[in-house]
Amino acid sequence: LDDNRNPLYLFALTPFMSGGPEDFAKAKLISLAVAVGLVLLIFWMSLRLWGYDTAIAAAAIVALSPATAYMSRYVSADALFAAAYCATVFVIAGPDDLRRSWPAWGALTAAAFLCKANGHLLFLTALACGLGRHGTAFLRSPAPWGAVAVFIALASFLLWRNAAVWGSPFHHYYTPIIWLQNHDESLLLRDTPVWNEIGPLWYLRNYTLGEAAGRFRDGLLAAGDAFLLGMSTGPEALWPRRAIGSLLLAAAGLGAGSLWREGRKNEVVAIAGTAGFFFLLFSWAAWRTPLRYIYPMVLSLTPLAVLGLGRCAGPRLRAQLPWLGRRSCLTAAV
């Protein structure tokens, strides 16, 4: 009846667990394997959308990222969620095959939801992409409803459990906590009648608009700093990471702008739009924005950063990107 951890990560660990003290080491090795899989996923998805040069350079940036190193040794569902998140947004960003891409999207969104409770929010950006491509005719086609059916079929056991035990199919322990000002409030209110009342209306009754604005401002600063640290690659010292992260984030903006001007707007909405939506969501949780929450977003933006750097680089440097990427990936592997 755990309402804090969704089950997919635990399902993945179960075949390798024996109940002994060695299980922790095994779990860390599985996290390392998932991190390696993330590098390969970024390479493969970038290869499909933008070609080999972008793919190898993006994979190198991810492989040498301190954030990836951190996720590879962290025993949690976050790396697996990052994989499901990136696969989902890249599937929607890709070629518009309604018969194949949307059922695949439904399955990947179910995987994201079974990893972490906010995975179902990927529905919102997928809906924006579908409407952007096809207008309201998209809602009359079988594609979105087929995707919803696949999602429900795969996640039905958790949706049913949540509804039966907690009263909502999308219930999670942190759902009320995001409307509190700090973690101490959750400890004080958890076992009181007030706990079931906590939500947007409860927040507006108990806090002023000025307090809400201050909370969101602090959250933007905290999430923004985590974003820069996550976007970086190379050294682990904080200030170089912030500088490199700022450069790569600016490059991602340039890459998104160039795709938009080329008419590839769906790729920008799917990747940058989803990242922006989740960034604002986590900014509201001003005291809950650790790097592991931000990591899926910065991971998905890495290919856009490579595209932006390629637009800025001269032809000689651009020609060296595949060679630099291969060397960087080899260094990361060693």
Short description:
This protein is mainly alpha-helical and 334 residues long. It contains 16 helices and no strands. It has helices spanning 8-13, 23-50, 52-63, 66-72, 78-93, 101-115, 122-134, 137-140, 142-166, 183-189, 200-206, 209-231, 238-261, 265-284, 291-312, 315-333.
Describe this structure in words.
The structure is a single chain. With 334 residues, the chain is mostly helical. It is built from 16 helices and no strands. It has helices spanning 8-13, 23-50, 52-63, 66-72, 78-93, 101-115, 122-134, 137-140, 142-166, 183-189, 200-206, 209-231, 238-261, 265-284, 291-312, 315-333.
Average of per-residue pLDDT values: 86
How far apart lie the N and C ends?
A: 42 Å
Taken as a percent bin, the fraction of beta residues is under 5%
Write down the Rg: 20 Å
Unreliable segments of 5+ consecutive residues = 329-334
Number of strands: 0
Sum up the overall morphology in one term: globular
- Give the proportion of residues in helices: over 70%
